[in-house]
């Protein structure tokens, strides 16, 4: 049996999903940081007035949120593509990119 190929249309959809997940994750991180530290702005790595602990905490929280949101958006998009085309938008070995 020959494997079905995913339509070329998935590339722009995948790009849009990536952009959307980045936007959603940024908004979620801002709200989360405000709850954690009661500050509007998270520390930047080059912010001299912030401690290592603050900078690394912000980076860890941001990274976790981005990974979870991206995975949720990617998985939702892949399921929608499979429902509409009958083809899962990934290769057999899995993985991203």
The coarse silhouette is elongated
Quickly count the helices: 2
Oligomer: single chain
Task: Compute the number of strand runs.
Answer: 0
Helical content, roughly? 55-70%
The sequence of SSEs as H and E is: HH
Which stretches of 5+ consecutive residues score pLDDT under 50? none
Structural class, from secondary structure content? mainly alpha
**Cα-based radius of gyration, to the nearest Å:** 18 Å
Alpha-carbon distance between the two ends: 26 Å
Main sheet attributes: strand count, strand direction, barrel closure = none
SS strand fraction: under 5%
Mean pLDDT: 86
Would you write up a description of this structure?
- The protein is mainly α.
- 64% of the residues lie in helices and 0% in strands.
- The protein contains two helices and no strands.
- It has helices spanning 10-37, 52-85.
- The protein is elongated and about 55 Å long.
Describe what is shown at a glance.
It contains two helices and no strands. The protein has 97 residues and is mainly alpha-helical. The radius of gyration is 18 Å and the shape is elongated.
Map the helices and strands.
Layout: H1 10-37, H2 52-85
Helix pairs in contact: 1-2
Q: Any descriptors?
A:
single chain; mainly alpha; 2 helices; 64% helix; 97 residues; elongated
